[in-house]
Specification:
The structure is a single chain. By secondary structure, the protein is α+β, with helices and mostly antiparallel strands. The protein has a single domain, classed as Cytidine Deaminase, domain 2 (3-Layer(aba) Sandwich). The chain is built from three helices and six strands, in the order ββααβαβββ. It has a six-stranded mixed β-sheet with strand order 2-1-3-4-5-6. Strand 4 and strand 5 form a beta hairpin. It starts with a strand and ends in a 5-residue tail after the last strand.
Length: about 130
């Protein structure tokens, strides 16, 4: 995830629980951490709370698509909006395409109230 205090951004990596979930229930979680990512909601909440205490806020989430293009998949949408509305509506969703350990592309998606969906927006580099 990416946090910002308005002056600078900070990347905070969260633990991937996907292998643990897969081991506990492979039918519900058929994919491993090689191609799927599940963050711990308690860790996420703790990081966001700590950021707020220091005047920072959540700016974006990021994840990769190994050996796939950078698109916002149905699974990505389900994670970001489990009840049909985004859990963090102001946070961008950054998807990085990686082929053979090389970044091949990156796209940013934001929630659109008009479309009630995540839409691709131009990537702005600092």
């Amino acid at each position: 995830m990416v946090l910002t205090d308005g002056a600078r951004d900070r990347v905070q990596r969260l633990q991937n629980l996907q292998n643990r979930l897969h081991a506990l229930d492979p039918q519900t979680y058929p994919r491993t951490a090689l191609i799927a990512y599940a963050m711990d909601p308690k860790e996420l909440e703790a990081v966001i709370d700590a950021a707020h205490k220091h005047g920072a806020k959540l700016k974006a989430f990021y994840h990769s698509h190994p050996n796939h293009d950078a698109y916002f998949s149905e699974e990505d949408k389900a994670f970001a909006s489990p009840f049909g509305e985004p859990t963090f509506p102001g946070a961008a969703q950054i998807v990085v395409s990686i082929y053979d350990k090389v970044v091949r592309g990156m796209r940013v998606f934001l929630w659109s109230e008009e479309e009630k969906d995540f839409v691709a927006v131009p990537l702005q580099r600092a």
